[in-house]
Structure formats: C-alpha cells, structure tokens
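To illustrate the input format used throughout this study, we show a single complete record. The first block contains the structure-token representation of the backbone; no residue identities are included at this stage. The design step must infer an amino acid for every position from geometry alone.
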C-alpha cells in the first residue's frame, strides 16, 4: 500500500502538466458556467458558498423542464433561512446554447451534470475551446465515448486545463477510514489477491429511483430511464465503486489500463418500473415514445440498471455490483457495502438494517490475539491525531469503528468538498500525477465491462 514510483514513471510524465502549472492567475476568480443541467448534481455543486467563485453563474441549456428544475434548486439555496447562498443565475436557453457558450466564453470552468449521451462530446468540445471542466460521473458510458474522453484528457494536458470528475464517495467518512486502516500494515497486512469466486475486494451499491434531494422528492427527467442516455448501472453509479477500489486499495499508484487490468466476467440485468411508479418519479402521464421498445405488457418498463463486473487490478480479484430499485426500505436511502480482505484483517463497510442503514466500518482480524489488539490500539492513537474523536468498540468478530457525528456531513455536502478540491487544483496546479491516468483506467473498466456483459468483448 505504499506510494507508487518506478516502472510507470513515464506514464506519470505524460500528465505532469496537470501538477506543474496553476490554471488561474493569482487574483483571478473562478467563473462558473453550468451547461445543460439535467441532473440534480449540477445544483449540488452550488449548494454551499465557496471561496474564490464569482456569484454570477452563466447557464446555457435548452429550454424545458431540466433547466427549470435546476434553477428552482438554486433559488431554494438562495432563499433558505439557514446559511443562504447568493448566486445570480444568468440564463440562456436558445437552441444554439452550446455554440453561444463557446462564443461568449463568460466563464473559465464548465460544470456538467446531465444527459450522459451528450456529456462526453460536451466535455471534449469545451476542452477544445479552452474551458476547464468539472464533470459529474459518468464522463463516458460506452467504448465509443471512452475513446472521445481519452482525446479530451490529451487535449486538456496540451492546453494546461483541468478536467476532473466528481467523486463524492471519497469523502464519505467510512470509506475514508477504510482506506486509512488499509494503509496500516500492522492492522490490515497485505491486500489478498483472492480468486474470481472469492475476490480480494467486493463492493455493492444499491440506488433508488424514488428519493429525496435537499428535503424534497426528486423529479427525474424521462430520459433518465433510457440507458442509451443515462448509461447502465455499472457505467453510472458503478463508477464510484471502481474509483473507490483504485483509491482505497492502491493509493497514489498510477494505473496503466492497457497492462494492469484484466477481466474475468461481467453481467447486466434489468430493473422493472411500473407505469404508476414512472408517473410518480417523472410527473408525466405515460411512457415517452423513445422508451416504448422497453415496455412490457403496456405498463411495465424494463430498465437495464443493474450490472456486475469481476476483474483483476494489479493481480487482485475485484467484484463490483451496482443495482437500482424503486424506493428504499424503511425511509432509508442509497446504500453501499464493501469489504477489503487483508492478510491480517478484513475491513467491512456495512449499511444494512442491522446498522439502521447507516454506513458503519468494522475491523475483523483474521487471527485475533492480545498482540494484535495492542498494535491496533497503538495505530488508532496515530489516526486519532488526524481524525480526532474516532474510537473502537469491541464486538464478537473484532471492532466497530466509532465515528463522531461531526464527520458525517452527508452525501450532498460532499459535492462542495469535491469542488473545493478541484478549485485547489486550479489555483495551485498540484493535481497528483496519478489522478488523470486513474480516471482513464476507471472509465476503461466500466465501459469494457458493458461491452463484455453484452457479449461484444473477448476480454
């Protein structure tokens, strides 16, 4: 789990411009542009007031319900009683909105969260026009768009621009501490390579079509249920699982996707949404024509929203699964469960009914002993210097990691933290050398898994 140098130094050099040059002048402010916001994540970037960002935000989008929904959320942030924001949205909704954005160049950072069929082309053309880009996941949903995304990264490096995706799950405290404990040899040992049947790393996420965002029931656009526009489950939310695998298990390690990733198998399967459920989520009276081919018995929509991939990364067998269902049980929400199997301990994040659907981290030693406990407690004291207040509670399998509430800021707050990280890269030019090649590896993994699950790849 050590920082990686050596045989991939040449690959790192390809992206050195990302860490060698600040992208903004010393007194230059960030000027945001929001492009075609069709997903609520675009608004969450602006849920909090962030330093060095001008309050004027330029919005370019086609006229319709997507941009209206976005602006309604921004208004709600501006007029809330507690800690209101002060955004001024300057909106253009002509049919030539994209060309208008390129021509006017009112900002220096384009934020994208919307229709994923269009997003990769938006990214590439924005980079080509000289904009920095903060893109919501996924930045590519199939092999064709992956190739386009690679070109965008190449051009961004040439133009000294920062292209970055919004990986909020790195800021969920249980994931962060799972990574921290995995980096302690006395506690975790070495990451097991495992086998395809018993992988060294397993992660599963379950998301829900019907959910609450910023306190209100979320209305989703009809195209969200078209996987040609939204992407399938593993290629959409599964992006987070691939990212966490890379970030937690191989921190600071540069991935050469052509050499370091091999596939065992992948599969996909549908979720089923009834007409009444579809109406509740979209506020529409029926299925649109572009979804008709996916409608079963006139009232049930088949959505290929579930996917699983079993692959090897640096020889470690990994199994990742992304699922979608209609609504969460017991007024809970999206959930994620994971385990890293080490030679000395297994690190579990569980989010089940037992944990009241709250993510909880457990340390379960392979060979419990008084000596292991003594070492664990000593390393805990080291971590407490960085994460004040964390503690361990013993149970029959090992320990539960007790995490103070101050670290549990919630999914929506993580968008602000990602944006702050991105602003630091813009300001200081200190993006780590591994970030870009690992983003490329991430989207190679998800898009190749899709091809494999459809029988289009012999990997």
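Output of the design step:
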């Amino acid at each position: 789990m050590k920082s990686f140098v050596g045989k991939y130094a040449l690959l790192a050099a390809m992206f050195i411009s990302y860490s060698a040059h600040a992208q903004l002048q010393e007194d230059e402010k960030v000027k945001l542009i929001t492009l075609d916001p069709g997903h609520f994540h675009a608004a969450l970037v602006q849920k909090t007031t962030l330093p060095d960002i001008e309050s004027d935000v330029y919005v370019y989008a086609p006229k319709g319900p997507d941009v209206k929904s976005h602006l309604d959320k921004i208004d709600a942030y501006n007029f809330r009683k507690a800690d209101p924001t002060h955004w001024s949205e300057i909106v253009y909704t002509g049919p030539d909105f994209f060309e208008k954005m390129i021509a006017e160049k009112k900002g220096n950072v384009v934020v994208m969260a919307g229709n994923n069929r269009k997003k990769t082309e938006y990214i590439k053309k924005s980079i080509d026009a000289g904009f920095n880009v903060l893109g919501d996941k996924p930045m590519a949903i199939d092999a064709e768009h992956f190739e386009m995304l690679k070109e965008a990264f190449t051009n961004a490096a040439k133009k000294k621009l920062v292209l970055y995706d919004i990986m909020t799950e790195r800021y969920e405290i249980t994931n962060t501490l799972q990574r921290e404990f995995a980096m302690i040899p006395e506690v975790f040992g070495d990451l097991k390579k495992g086998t395809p049947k018993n992988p060294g790393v397993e992660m599963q996420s379950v998301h829900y079509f019907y959910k609450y965002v910023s306190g209100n029931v979320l209305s989703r656009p009809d195209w969200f249920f078209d996987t040609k526009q939204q992407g399938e489950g593993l290629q959409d939310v599964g992006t987070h699982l691939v990212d966490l695998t890379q970030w937690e298990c191989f921190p600071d390690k540069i991935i050469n996707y052509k050499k370091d990733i091999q596939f065992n198998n992948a599969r996909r399967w549908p979720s089923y949404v009834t007409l009444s459920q579809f109406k509740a989520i979209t506020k529409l009276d029926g299925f649109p024509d572009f979804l008709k081919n996916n409608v079963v018995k006139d009232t049930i929509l088949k959505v290929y929203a579930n996917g699983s991939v079993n692959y090897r990364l640096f020889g470690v067998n990994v199994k990742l699964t992304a699922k979608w269902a209609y609504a969460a049980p017991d007024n809970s929400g999206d959930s994620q469960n994971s385990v890293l199997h080490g030679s000395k301990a297994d690190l579990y994040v569980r989010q089940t009914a037992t944990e009241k659907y709250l993510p909880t981290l457990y340390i379960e030693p392979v060979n419990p002993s008084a000596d292991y406990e003594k070492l664990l407690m000593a390393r805990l004291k080291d971590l407490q210097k960085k994460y004040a207040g964390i503690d361990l509670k013993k149970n029959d399998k090992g320990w539960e990691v007790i995490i103070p509430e101050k670290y549990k800021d919630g999914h929506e707050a993580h968008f602000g933290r990602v944006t702050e990280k991105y602003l630091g890269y813009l300001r200081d030019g200190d993006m780590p050398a591994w970030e870009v090649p690992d983003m490329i590896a991430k989207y190679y993994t998800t898009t190749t898994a899709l091809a494999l699950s459809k029988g289009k790849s012999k990997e």
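Structural context for interpreting the output: The chain has two domains: 9-167+413-432, 170-409. The chain has 16 helices and 18 strands.
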